[in-house]
Amino acid sequence: MKLYRKIINSFKLISHGFLAYHEDIESPHRYTILRRNIIILMILVTFIPLFSMAGINYLQYRNNMKAEIQAPLRLLMGKTVHSFDLLLKERLSMVRSVASSYSFEELSDEETLNRLHRVLKKEFGGFIDLGVINENGFQVAYAGPYKLQGKDYSKQEWYHEVEVRGFYISDVFMGYRGFPHLAIAVQNYTFGGTNWTLRATLDTKILDSIILSMELSPESDAFLVNNAAIVQTHSKYYGNVLENCSIASEIVAQNITMSEEEDPIGRGKILVLQSKLTMAEFSLVIVRPQSVLLKSWYTLQSEMFFLLLGSCVLIVIAVFKTATFLVNQIKTSDERRESAFRELEHTQKLSSIGRLAAGVAHEINNPMAIIDQKAGLMKDLIEVDENFKDKERFLGFTNSIISSVDRCKTITHRLLGFARRMEVRFEFLDINEVIREVLGFLDKEAAYRRILLALDLASDLPAIQSDKGQLQQVFLNILTNSFAAIEDGGEVSIKSWLFDSETVAISIEDNGCGMSRETLSQIFEPFFSTKKGAGTGLGLPITYGIIKKLGGDFKVESELEKGTQFTVFLNMTMPNNKGEG
Fold first, then answer.
1. CATH superfamily of 216-293
2. 129 to each of 75, 125, 157, 313, how far by Cα in Å?
3. I need a surface site. Which of 10, 62, 407, 465 has the fewest CB within 10 A?
4. Domain-wise residue ranges, the chain
5. How is 148-166 classified by DSSP, letter by letter?
6. What is the rounded distance in angstroms from the CA atom of residue 538 to the CA atom of residue 477?
7. What is the pLDDT of residue 337?
């Protein structure tokens, strides 16, 4: 539930981030926010299923591998317990067979008892001695390496257990012999109904031999313990015979129990298997370190970890690349859309100003024509009358009026050009020659202000089809702006080159004051000027309109305190809309 809540909260945060992006669309950081949100969303969408599946597969595979590893151990445990039970059952059967085959009197004969002892020891192995005990608990006959004849067992617990159960298999003990052994005793009766007991002791080496036959790895251990958790056979790591064992526990049933514990000798986690024998109060304990059992699992786990890590790295790289690509596409689309909106807005402004300019030019041209005619008539009348007083003075006035009228005609001519009502005349031109002619108008100003004009005009440019007069106006407007932007002693660089197979490019670059991004976005708007009252704000809009009318393109790059570069791109052939204005 906690993981589910965290996932839901994460998606809420991401959704909030997307909403913030849309609400704050004008923020300069919107693309960074959008990229971050896309990355977070994609990582969550990929990593949550990936880690969920990896976790589920990890647990399932680990459990399955544990089961597969533990199954052979359980099988080995079952077989070994069966071997111990079979051994003890066989030895108990041998003792019972001797007690049933011979009478008390026969076995009380030491020669007979010694012969039987030799046969058992030779044929079956493990028998240390044999003893015959009468109804009073005294050992009346003994065959073996020790002097135990006449030994009184009447007060020992095992003797009374034999009387109750009819047989007895002891724990491993030291006893009179001074080394580990176990005893097997069976009860029998004489023909007169008197009970007697045949007792045999076995060497614990026969138990060790079964453990050795298990062929455990050097790191593993197996041994027998009794109900009091006392070691009955030798253990490599957890105590000698008759010492307490710290990892064994009392088991009531014969089922195999399995537990994971911390190794008391510092070998980390260990797997402890334990099962109770049927024939005796013994339990078989098998101990194996987890590092040995799960060695292949740890190897696979490391490989899975590095595979998962590599997959995560690749996913993160792919997510970052994809998010960056998508955001860049969105950014490019937004920029194109914004540029289209601005161009549409600019076109609408030019169209409105053009219509206004056409109307103003038409209205001004009519009175200007009348003034021009009247001024010309006045001039003619003054020149005819030789006795006219202040003739020269009035001629100067009329010339001034005619000059002002001509200037107004030039202004209205430009307004009509801005309104796209001037006729365009296409002819083959050498663009370098056009540039040089325009520079001829500005030579005196450049020399006076010590402006360096650096020319880099390509000599192999093909002729282009365009309008010479309007191109002269374009370059004159741009150069005028460049001269206004630089201090005395500045530099203007003019370069021409073949942009592609159909386009010629001309750049005019100055090292003047430059423009800010805000100013740069408004330079083509009519009546916008940075010359503080000295300019009309129509130069660059007119230039822009002429270039578009001629089928070309216009590009401006500028940086404050570093300068500005105007680049004009002109088609070498006439545009399809040559007659439209």
1. PAS domain (3.30.450.20)
2. 35, 11, 20, 74
3. 407
4. 216-293, 423-581
5. -TT-B-TTSHHHHHHHHHS
6. 10
7. 80
